[in-house]
Design a protein that fits this description.
alpha/beta; Peroxisomal Thiolase, Chain A, domain 1; 2 domains; six-stranded mixed β-sheet; 10 helices; globular
Length: about 325
């Protein structure tokens, strides 16, 4: 069984193996600097479907199936399928699960769903409740804009601090044995809300939760930022990353050359009109299952801390003038 570390963290006694990784991205993501790291770049943002929502669900389903094909697993051999997305009632994941013949647990952590799924899946394996777990998360730019902000047909001008929701889905196959990097530590985050209410300002809304969970992780595990080859946040973009570094510095933690954010990596910020960078359930999942996963496998990274962040709002709460609660979950992945 795993070992509890402090209040929020835990070390896995039998670290689950990441046996395979797969991803699918949209045309815009495929035009960015990480294009060669992606398995499947869609030609059409509709992905051959009549609606964006159906395209989003198809991405989740196909990225999950692609991860299974890479290691010759059949869906019937999976003990659990864990997945989530941004849409109401996580419909994209629910509908994707129709095509994956495995017990399904739908998860919602907004943009933090990917690390939440890895963490829960690792608990199931380390606790002896599963031997094989498939995890996935995804998002679609146009569905997110329609639900949380304005339909893109309206052509509403975005403020400079707004982020671009990533169109993409990433999946991992976790196993109790085998070859590959292992998940060694997890830290579950607390909900943090410092009063941001603008649904365009995701980075500022999520950064306080990222700082809170990272500090808890360092305190629980007795580690420091310098102990990791890479500290990667999921979805903060340029504004949120700068805010996080300021918040951490105020608490005595310096995020220097080994820190980066998936939202600043996935797009060419100078060439592509994404303003403050990327976000969404697909942001951390496609970046991690692409370039980061490959560098762990090649031994170029020995120890990576991934902290995906989420804004736990809904269109209803925003319309009622509510502020935006944030959450962040951490997993540590190590090469062997």
């Amino acid at each position: 069984m795993g070992q509890k570390l402090g209040r929020q963290s835990f070390r896995f006694t039998k670290p689950p193996v990441i046996a395979a990784a797969a991803n699918i991205v949209g045309p815009m993501e495929g035009d960015g600097p990480l294009a060669v790291q992606f398995d499947w770049i869609m030609d059409d943002i509709l992905f051959g479907e009549p609606t964006w929502e159906r395209a989003e669900s198809k991405m989740l389903r196909e990225s999950a199936k692609l991860a299974l094909r890479k290691i010759n697993w059949q869906p019937q051999e999976i003990d659990f399928f864990l997945a989530g997305d941004l849409l109401n009632q996580i419909t994209s994941a629910n509908f994707a699960a129709r095509g994956i013949e495995a017990p399904f647990l739908g998860l919602f952590g907004a943009c933090s769903t990917f690390t939440e799924a890895i963490m829960v899946g690792s608990m199931l394996i380390d606790g002896g409740f599963a031997a094989r777990v498939l995890v996935a998360s995804g998002s679609h730019h146009n569905t997110a804009e329609r639900q949380f902000r304005f339909p893109i047909e309206q052509g509403v001008q975005r403020p400079p601090f707004a982020q671009w929701t990533v169109t993409g889905s990433g999946a991992l196959a976790l196993a109790d044995q085998g070859e590959g990097p292992v998940v060694t530590v997890g830290t579950a985050g607390k909900v943090v809300d410092l009063g941001i209410s603008d649904p365009n300002n995701m980075g500022a809304a999520m950064a306080p939760a990222a700082a809170d969970t990272l500090i808890s992780h360092f305190q629980d595990t007795g580690t420091a930022p310098a102990d990791y080859d890479l500290i990667l946040t999921g979805d903060l973009g340029t504004v949120g990353s700068d805010t996080l570094k300021d918040l951490m510095r105020m608490q005595g933690y310096l995020l220097e050359g080994n820190y980066c954010d998936c939202g600043t990596l996935i797009y060419d910020l100078a060439r592509q009109d994404v303003h403050a960078g990327g976000s969404g359930c697909g942001c951390s999942s496609v970046v991690f299952t692409g370039s980061i996963w490959k560098q762990l496998n090649e031994g170029r990274y020995r120890k990576v801390l991934l902290a995906a962040t989420g804004a736990l709002m809904s269109s209803t709460s925003s319309q009622q003038g509510e502020t935006i609660p944030g959450i962040a979950h951490v997993v540590v992945v190590e090469s062997r």
